[in-house]
Amino acid sequence: MKNFLMTAAISLVASTAAYADNHAMDRGDMIRTRDITGGQVYAMTADNWDMDMTYDSVDENWDEIGEIEDLVLNRNGQLTGIIAEVGGFLDIGDKHVFIAVDDVRLVPTDDKSYGFVSPLSKDQLMEKENLDEGFWD
Fold first, then answer.
1. What is the per-residue DSSP string for 16-66?
2. If you ran DSSP here, which 8-state letter would residue 130 be given?
3. What value, to the nearest 5°, has the Cα angle with vertex 36 and ends 55 and 79?
4. Global confidence as pTM
5. Would residue 7 be called left, alpha or beta, if left means φ above 0 and alpha means ψ between -120 and 50 degrees?
6. What are the DSSP calls for 63-103, one per residue?
7. How far apart are the C-alpha atoms of 87 and 82, rounded to whole Å?
8. C-alpha dihedral, 20 to 21 to 23 to 27, nearest 10°
9. Exposure string over 50-59, b if 16+ CB within 10 A, otherwise e
């Protein structure tokens, strides 16, 4: 009986520690992919691009140039870039292009959604290879 109680106590302490560890992350720091995909892609003047800059809102001088279709991760789970839908009208003549993580910065568009800003113009993105759905399958 003594061993049973000791085992139960150890299990309770271990499960409590695991629960606390899993819930220790500040939820205010979490951004879910559902809050990003479908968001807008903006272009800013390349002269203003700073690799270390972060943005807390969309600048009125940025051009809306596309929509975030997907996030691309490497096998280690690190973000390597995004797939953006650019050009076209009503899905006619649009392209799905890869933009490397070095060429985008996350920017909140409102309290619950995000977009990306890039120094690449719409014309530069339209010159990139079109990555249709078949490429990823």
1. HHHHHHHT-S-GGG---GGGTTT-EEEE--GGG--TT---SS--TTSEEEE
2. P
3. 80
4. 0.71
5. alpha
6. EEEEEEEEEEE-TTS-EEEEEEEES-BTTBS-EEEEEEGGG
7. 16
8. 140
9. eeeeebeebe
Sign for the CA dihedral angle at 27, 30, 33, 34 comes to positive
Query: Residue 7: which H helix or E strand, with range?
Result: helix 2-22
Q: What confidence tens digit (pLDDT) does each residue in 50-83 have? A: 777 888 889 888 989 898 988 999 898 888 999 9
DSSP state of 2: H
Return d(Cα 39, Cα 66) in angstroms, integer. 9
CA dist list (Å): 61 to 5, 45, 109: 67, 9, 14
DSSP state of 111: S
Residues listed for the chain: 137
